[in-house]
Design a protein that fits this description.
16-stranded antiparallel β-barrel; about 5% helix; Porin; mainly beta
């Protein structure tokens, strides 16, 4: 990554021409960064007829592709101001992700000091942050985000957030006055803008995290409650409807080997009734020279239903350099009863059918 010092005039007259990646003026810096990641996937049983398909993923590959800007300014006395603007893009078509938002992955400004970080704007909430620490596959095409699409999309519009780390003890929370302003559809655009006069619960959301973390191990718990309103997706058609997730998860380092897992308990109180489920996951990540092997198992158990889901995924990544990686993965999703959870994020599968998948791709960081 190249760092270049620019005058104030250069910044005003031509940011793109003046600096390729990082700008520095006085005690302030602005950085351009991103990930471009794409590949091919072969999936079986994509419909009730049992047909297979070969395709280029849209939502994610090994990581969702993005381009972003982040900046900091030293205010003195250990206090910093910062901002993040991050756009998600679909590599198969070049379209914007997160419901067509320009900066759908992040659009926030804040202050940071010894007391913690205060953030205002669209941001990752505590459900997302806890998952990053314990899910060895992360937002991979084959991962627990296929079982619960909210997990890799756990961001909140119109939100105030706090995160603090005090000698290993971690505390965090977000509060949103209107959790999702996009009506484009899908898990990242559920049409619940909120901020309704006379209805304080409409589309509100709050999340919290408490935990203890070191380099060797960590354990945390989170709580996430979102309210609905008229027109909102996911069965949350009134402000009395709620979608609640509580998680307990952790990680352990055994030398270079990482173990991570947890349970996500969900209670959906929709207009059509109440549904309860538990999602269990456990994964292992181990580096061998320039290679990294990841494996994960997961199960969603739905209360009073035989529509359960089991997943098994293995991934092999090779680092061609510090910035460029090639990878391949195989996986299987077993659907029971009336379940139809696709192995690949955003994909399809025939009701009650098992789905196998294989993929390969290329990722570059800048």
């Amino acid at each position: 990554m190249k760092n270049t010092t620019c005058s104030a005039a250069a910044l005003v007259c031509g940011i793109a021409a003046a600096c390729a990646t990082t700008f520095a003026h006085a005690q302030a810096t602005v950085q351009l960064y991103g990930i471009v990641d794409s590949g091919l996937a072969r999936m079986t049983n994509v419909n009730s007829a049992g047909d297979s398909v070969t395709k280029m993923p849209s939502l994610t590959s090994s990581f969702p592709s993005r381009i972003g800007f982040r900046g900091t300014e030293d205010l003195g006395g250990g206090l910093q101001a910062f901002f993040v603007l991050e756009n998600g893009l679909a590599m198969d078509t070049g379209a914007q992700q997160q419901g067509g938002r320009l900066f759908g992955r992040a659009a926030n400004v804040g202050l940071k000091g010894a007391w913690g970080t205060l953030t205002v704007g669209r941001q990752q909430n505590m459900t997302y942050i806890a998952g990053l620490k314990t899910d060895v596959l992360g937002p991979h095409l084959f991962a627990i985000g296929s079982i619960d699409p909210y997990l890799p999309n756990a961001r909140s519009d119109n939100a105030i957030g706090y995160m603090g780390n005090f000698s290993g003890f971690v505390l965090g929370a977000t509060y949103s006055f209107g959790r999702d302003a996009s009506s484009a559809g899908g898990p990242a655009a559920t049409n619940c803008p909120g901020e309704v006069a006379g209805n304080a619960k409409a589309c509100r959301q709050y999340t919290g995290l408490i935990g203890y973390e070191t380099k060797a191990f960590g354990l945390n718990a989170t709580y996430d409650r979102m309210y609905g309103n008229t027109g909102a997706a996911g069965g949350l058609a009134t402000s009395a409807n709620t979608d609640i997730r509580a998680t307990v998860n952790g990680y352990l380092m055994l030398g270079p080997t990482k173990l991570g897992g947890g349970v996500i308990a969900r209670e959906l109180n929709a207009v059509t009734g109440q549904t309860e489920s538990n999602l269990y996951y456990f994964g292992v990540s181990h580096p061998i020279g320039a290679f990294t092997i990841d494996a994960q198992v997961a199960r969603r158990d739905t209360k009073d239903s035989d529509s359960d889901v089991d997943m098994l995924v293995a991934r092999l990544t090779y680092a061609m350099s510090k910035r460029t990686f090639v990878y391949t993965a195989v996986g299987r999703m077993d659907n029971d009863g009336a379940s139809a959870v696709a192995l690949d994020a955003g994909g399809t599968v025939g009701v009650g059918l098992a789905q196998n998948g294989v993929m390969a791709g290329l990722r570059h960081h800048f």
